[in-house]
Amino acid sequence: VQLQAFGGGLVQPGGSLRLSCAASGFNLDHYAIGWFRQVPGKEREFVAAISWSRTYHTDSVKGRFAISRDNAKNTVYLQMNSLKPEDTAVYYCAAGSTMADEAWAYDYWGQGTQVTVSS
Question: How far apart are CA 28 and CA 118, in angstroms?
Fold first, then answer.
């Protein structure tokens, strides 16, 4: 069972990135998937989550980020638009049995991917 997050990079303010969360060894469509982010010295912060029929985004990213899933590709995406310097963080994806905005609710975690928003 393995999750892998990728797609991070350096982008200018106002730019876009799409993060991907791919699974191996299990089907993502059996799980709720969450995206979290973390900066050094701070706790991991919830960004967005998707269940089988619903999505949920934290207020600071509403209207800018969108989580989606492609079950055929066993992948969940986080489209990030209008990026701001404060979005800079390591982004993690996680899988769990219930959609939640708390990290403890998720059972499987991928390694992080760095997103840096800077001019």
Answer: 32
